[in-house]
Amino acid sequence: IAHFGRLGSQCVELETDERLRIFHDFYRVGEESSFHFDIKETRKKGHSFKDYICPDSMEFEKDYFKMGDRYGRVLFLREYASYIKDSMVAELTDLNRNLMMSIDVVPVPTDEAVREAENRLLGVETNITNWQRRQNSNNNFSATVPYDMEQQKKEMKEFLDDLTTRDQRMMFAVITFVHTADSKEQLDNDTEALLTTARKHLCQFGVLKFQQVDGLNTVMPFGVRKIDTFRTLTTESLAVFIPFRVQDIFHENGIYYGQNVISKNMIIADRKQLLNGNSFILGVSGGGKSFAAKGEIENVILSSDSDVIIIDPEREYSQLVRALGGEVIHISATSQNHINAMDMTKEYGDGANPVILKSEFIMSLCEQLIGGSNLGAKQKSIIDRCTASVYRTYQQNNYQGEVPTLQDFRAELLKQDEPEAQEIALAIELFTSGSLNTFAKHTNVDTNNRLICYDILDLGKQLMPIGMLVVLDSILNRITQNRAKGRNTFIFIDEIYLLFQHEYSANFLFTLWKRVRKYGAYATGITQNVDDLLQSHTARTMLANSEFIIMLNQASTDRLELAKLLNISDLQMSYITNVEAGHGLIKVGSSLVPFANKFPKNTKLYKLMTTKPGESA
């Protein structure tokens, strides 16, 4: 499993019932969904598990077998080409039928293999010597050794070198193949298609005659080998038949993200199953970023009870959010919507005293409001004292009743004797009782809806830094509440580069990215300026710490940066170079898969999700 992990492939050990399911699905085609096997129940009844998985009848003929109403045939690989491409296995298994391919490998101990190879080489050299001796006796002293003998000697030497100096093993391999069809005619056509595919690669499949039972026992994953059509291969040659050229992503209970371009399978991923569920959606303008995000939002809302929170700086999500019954919160200096910057629940923080963490947040807020140099030790002490004092009654009431606001905090500052307190109070006056007091009043929007969209398009330049801090704090509040309830929270931040322009919101995001996994939350950043994003050390670390990344069409400078950061090969790069909207690469854990997400345009959902002019509802 560790070795496959290094290749970027996943190897999973199957439990008993999972193995039985494979046999059941093969033997009883069309009844896959009815598989509910409980070994304890079966044992109680005294039934054999074989009765549960086996077909109704099996009849074996000379070169095919009948399994219930279906026909099947076992083939084996008779002739190998001297050079085989790894695409052969993929092409053979691409046939849209119920089929299985089995590769049985018997390793030969290296000392035995070397001894055998040396004996063969000695035999070839003896033949050459005898041939030369015969030529010499005929006075033909200038004769050259025949080509086939030279080739035999050269190939045997190479084989021996592989075993002794190039650390390869000698293996015996048997490759068998079984396929089934609804009728004998269809079976013959499928067999012909498989034989043609093998011939295209200069290999030959043969049909097992009078050995269909043994062939079926060999090809089924029981770990039994009943036929001996051995072929000698080295490790290098055998590696061709390990067809890990396609990575597929299929998590149980996951959601749909598109179609795998190579295997044509659906990509079903569940961010909860990754090391961390943090995500980025990257691509040029018009590449389909917000469409991909909306697709994920809609899937999460419809398929789970998780909460979704969106920060929308471009007013792109309002239509979809309203259609799904969510709450759109417009935040601006002139808006009637207010979010209290001092909102705090019992669960705020990491199990510690919530006021300590809130005090830190208010220090950041004041520092942002005052601007210029950082706060001194005196100011910090005053802010901490006032924060504790303002929350005292609220805490004593067990976090029930009215939450204090920034106006209460300023009133508390004015009660202090120190001149520094008066300075802080004066500095934050604009944002508490002045014209930018939108965060200094009691919250008057429904922040308990499971789908919330914070529309920050109209936040002015002055309010933007503080607005972002308050919104992010409000989100943290919600995450901690959900953690206590055992609910998951998905956070989508569009145009995330805007938040990195302000030091405090960037740092807040950084801690959010690191900590939210423990809270059962999954953050998603959406941006087109990858190059700008990577200029920030904070953002670079966040990107490297994200296990789930959707890369759509990329600008040339961004492509190179991403290739370096995520170790993307040249071939994989072609999937994010000049591609149409909704196409690109998706990184899920260690897997990097090219995908296409085509969405039918004549649907109501498409009209709600698209941002193309003239196409929206």
Protein described:
It is built from 25 helices and 18 strands. The protein is an alpha/beta fold. It has 4 domains: 1-44, no CATH class; 55-245, no CATH class; 256-339 and 448-536 and 593-611, Rossmann fold (3-Layer(aba) Sandwich), CATH 3.40.50.300; 340-442, no CATH class. The chain has an 11-stranded mixed beta sheet with strand order 9-8-18-17-16-10-15-14-11-13-12. Strands 1, 2, 3, 4, 5, 6 and 7 form a 7-stranded antiparallel beta sheet that branches. β8 and β9 form a beta hairpin.
Q: What is the CATH superfamily of the largest domain?
A: P-loop containing nucleotide triphosphate hydrolases
Number of domains: 4
Oligomer: single chain
The CATH class designation of the largest domain is: Alpha Beta
Shape: elongated
What is the tally of beta strands?
18
Order of strands, widest sheet = 9-8-18-17-16-10-15-14-11-13-12
Structural class: alpha/beta
Largest sheet: 11 strands, mixed
Radius of gyration: 34 Å
Question: Approximately how much helix is present in the residues?
Answer: 40-55%
CATH architecture designation of the largest domain = 3-Layer(aba) Sandwich
Q: Looking at CATH, which topology of the largest domain would you report?
A: Rossmann fold
